[in-house]
Design brief:
This protein is mainly alpha-helical. It folds into 2 domains: about 110 residues, no CATH class; about 60 residues, Hypothetical Protein Yqey, Chain: A, domain1 (Orthogonal Bundle), CATH 1.10.1510. Helices cover about 55% and strands about 0% of the residues. The protein contains 8 helices and no strands. α4 packs antiparallel against α5 and α7 runs antiparallel to α8. Pfam families: Dehydratase_SU (PF02287). InterPro entries: Ppandiol/glycerol_DeHydtase_su, Prodiol/glycerol_DeHase__sf_su. This is PduE protein.
Length: about 170
Amino acid sequence: MSEIDDLVARVAQQLQSQSGTATSGATATTHATSGKGLGASDYPLYKKHPELVKSPSGQSLDDITIDNVLSGKVGSKDLRITSDTLQYQGEIADHAGRSAIQRNMARAAELTAIPDDRLLEMYGALRPYRSSKQDLLDISDELATKYHATICSGWFKEAAQYYEKNKKLKGDN
Protein backbone atom coordinates (compact mmCIF):
# COMPACT_ATOMS: atom_id res chain seq x y z
CA MET A 1 0.00 0.00 0.00
CA SER A 2 2.91 2.36 0.69
CA GLU A 3 6.67 2.40 0.87
CA ILE A 4 6.54 1.97 4.65
CA ASP A 5 4.20 -1.01 4.30
CA ASP A 6 6.64 -2.54 1.81
CA LEU A 7 9.57 -1.88 4.14
CA VAL A 8 7.83 -3.43 7.13
CA ALA A 9 6.87 -6.47 5.03
CA ARG A 10 10.47 -6.96 3.90
CA VAL A 11 11.74 -6.62 7.47
CA ALA A 12 9.19 -9.13 8.76
CA GLN A 13 10.11 -11.51 5.95
CA GLN A 14 13.83 -11.18 6.74
CA LEU A 15 13.23 -11.86 10.40
CA GLN A 16 11.14 -14.92 9.57
CA SER A 17 13.79 -16.30 7.24
CA GLN A 18 16.63 -15.61 9.70
CA SER A 19 15.05 -17.10 12.79
CA GLY A 20 12.00 -19.07 11.81
CA THR A 21 9.60 -16.71 13.59
CA ALA A 22 8.75 -13.10 12.99
CA THR A 23 8.95 -12.02 16.59
CA SER A 24 12.16 -13.65 17.79
CA GLY A 25 14.21 -10.61 16.77
CA ALA A 26 12.00 -8.20 18.69
CA THR A 27 13.51 -6.39 21.62
CA ALA A 28 11.79 -5.39 24.82
CA THR A 29 10.57 -1.81 24.74
CA THR A 30 8.55 0.51 26.88
CA HIS A 31 6.46 1.80 23.99
CA ALA A 32 2.72 1.97 24.40
CA THR A 33 0.81 -0.66 22.46
CA SER A 34 -2.68 -0.67 21.04
CA GLY A 35 -3.80 -3.53 23.22
CA LYS A 36 -4.64 -5.37 20.00
CA GLY A 37 -1.66 -7.71 20.37
CA LEU A 38 -0.35 -6.92 16.91
CA GLY A 39 2.89 -8.51 15.76
CA ALA A 40 4.96 -8.89 12.62
CA SER A 41 2.57 -11.56 11.30
CA ASP A 42 -0.18 -8.90 11.21
CA TYR A 43 1.57 -7.14 8.36
CA PRO A 44 0.24 -5.78 6.08
CA LEU A 45 -2.36 -4.34 8.40
CA TYR A 46 -4.80 -3.34 5.66
CA LYS A 47 -4.93 -6.96 4.44
CA LYS A 48 -4.72 -8.83 7.73
CA HIS A 49 -6.93 -6.51 9.81
CA PRO A 50 -8.91 -4.21 7.49
CA GLU A 51 -11.37 -3.59 10.33
CA LEU A 52 -8.63 -1.65 12.15
CA VAL A 53 -7.90 0.69 9.25
CA LYS A 54 -10.37 3.57 9.27
CA SER A 55 -10.51 7.01 7.74
CA PRO A 56 -10.45 10.01 10.06
CA SER A 57 -14.26 10.12 9.82
CA GLY A 58 -14.49 6.43 10.72
CA GLN A 59 -15.13 5.00 7.27
CA SER A 60 -13.77 1.54 6.52
CA LEU A 61 -11.48 0.68 3.63
CA ASP A 62 -14.46 -0.89 1.86
CA ASP A 63 -16.26 2.48 2.03
CA ILE A 64 -13.48 4.23 0.14
CA THR A 65 -14.51 3.64 -3.45
CA ILE A 66 -14.55 5.73 -6.61
CA ASP A 67 -18.37 5.76 -6.51
CA ASN A 68 -18.33 7.13 -2.95
CA VAL A 69 -15.75 9.75 -3.91
CA LEU A 70 -17.80 10.83 -6.92
CA SER A 71 -21.00 10.98 -4.86
CA GLY A 72 -19.30 13.04 -2.14
CA LYS A 73 -19.60 10.36 0.56
CA VAL A 74 -15.79 10.21 0.73
CA GLY A 75 -13.79 13.42 0.80
CA SER A 76 -10.09 14.21 0.64
CA LYS A 77 -9.80 14.14 4.44
CA ASP A 78 -10.99 10.52 4.38
CA LEU A 79 -7.86 9.59 2.46
CA ARG A 80 -5.57 10.58 5.33
CA ILE A 81 -4.02 8.10 7.70
CA THR A 82 -5.18 8.17 11.31
CA SER A 83 -3.19 8.26 14.49
CA ASP A 84 -4.51 4.81 15.40
CA THR A 85 -3.37 3.27 12.11
CA LEU A 86 0.11 4.76 12.53
CA GLN A 87 0.28 3.41 16.08
CA TYR A 88 -0.81 -0.04 14.89
CA GLN A 89 1.85 0.02 12.18
CA GLY A 90 4.39 1.08 14.79
CA GLU A 91 3.41 -1.78 17.04
CA ILE A 92 3.88 -4.23 14.18
CA ALA A 93 7.29 -2.72 13.39
CA ASP A 94 8.33 -2.85 17.04
CA HIS A 95 7.41 -6.54 17.30
CA ALA A 96 9.42 -7.15 14.11
CA GLY A 97 12.47 -5.72 15.88
CA ARG A 98 12.32 -2.32 14.20
CA SER A 99 12.01 0.06 17.13
CA ALA A 100 13.26 3.02 15.05
CA ILE A 101 10.32 2.60 12.69
CA GLN A 102 8.02 2.37 15.70
CA ARG A 103 9.36 5.67 17.03
CA ASN A 104 8.85 7.30 13.62
CA MET A 105 5.27 6.04 13.55
CA ALA A 106 4.66 7.40 17.06
CA ARG A 107 5.90 10.84 16.00
CA ALA A 108 3.80 10.71 12.85
CA ALA A 109 0.75 9.72 14.89
CA GLU A 110 1.18 12.86 16.99
CA LEU A 111 1.37 15.03 13.88
CA THR A 112 -2.04 13.90 12.59
CA ALA A 113 -3.73 16.21 15.13
CA ILE A 114 -2.02 19.34 13.81
CA PRO A 115 -3.64 21.33 10.98
CA ASP A 116 -1.58 21.25 7.78
CA ASP A 117 -0.95 25.00 7.64
CA ARG A 118 0.29 25.08 11.23
CA LEU A 119 2.46 22.02 10.68
CA LEU A 120 4.16 23.66 7.70
CA GLU A 121 4.79 26.78 9.79
CA MET A 122 6.37 24.62 12.50
CA TYR A 123 8.63 22.89 10.01
CA GLY A 124 9.61 26.26 8.57
CA ALA A 125 10.54 27.42 12.06
CA LEU A 126 13.06 24.57 12.28
CA ARG A 127 15.10 25.88 9.37
CA PRO A 128 18.39 27.40 10.57
CA TYR A 129 18.33 31.16 11.30
CA ARG A 130 14.50 31.32 11.07
CA SER A 131 13.55 31.27 14.75
CA SER A 132 14.69 32.56 18.08
CA LYS A 133 15.21 30.16 20.95
CA GLN A 134 11.97 31.42 22.48
CA ASP A 135 10.09 30.83 19.20
CA LEU A 136 11.17 27.19 19.25
CA LEU A 137 10.34 26.80 22.93
CA ASP A 138 6.91 28.34 22.33
CA ILE A 139 6.23 25.83 19.56
CA SER A 140 7.41 23.06 21.88
CA ASP A 141 4.93 24.24 24.50
CA GLU A 142 2.14 24.47 21.90
CA LEU A 143 2.84 20.92 20.72
CA ALA A 144 2.72 19.59 24.28
CA THR A 145 -0.28 21.52 25.57
CA LYS A 146 -2.53 22.07 22.55
CA TYR A 147 -1.84 18.91 20.55
CA HIS A 148 -0.54 16.54 23.26
CA ALA A 149 2.42 15.83 20.95
CA THR A 150 5.03 15.21 23.61
CA ILE A 151 7.54 13.46 21.35
CA CYS A 152 7.50 16.28 18.80
CA SER A 153 7.57 18.84 21.62
CA GLY A 154 10.82 17.29 22.79
CA TRP A 155 12.31 17.67 19.31
CA PHE A 156 11.65 21.41 19.34
CA LYS A 157 13.22 21.76 22.79
CA GLU A 158 16.24 19.84 21.54
CA ALA A 159 16.40 22.02 18.41
CA ALA A 160 16.33 25.18 20.56
CA GLN A 161 19.30 23.95 22.59
CA TYR A 162 21.22 22.73 19.55
CA TYR A 163 20.63 25.92 17.57
CA GLU A 164 21.73 28.04 20.51
CA LYS A 165 24.91 25.99 20.99
CA ASN A 166 25.73 25.98 17.26
CA LYS A 167 24.70 29.57 16.51
CA LYS A 168 21.78 28.65 14.22
CA LEU A 169 19.16 30.92 15.79
CA LYS A 170 17.60 33.98 14.16
CA GLY A 171 20.18 36.77 14.14
CA ASP A 172 23.17 34.44 14.46
CA ASN A 173 24.04 34.59 10.75
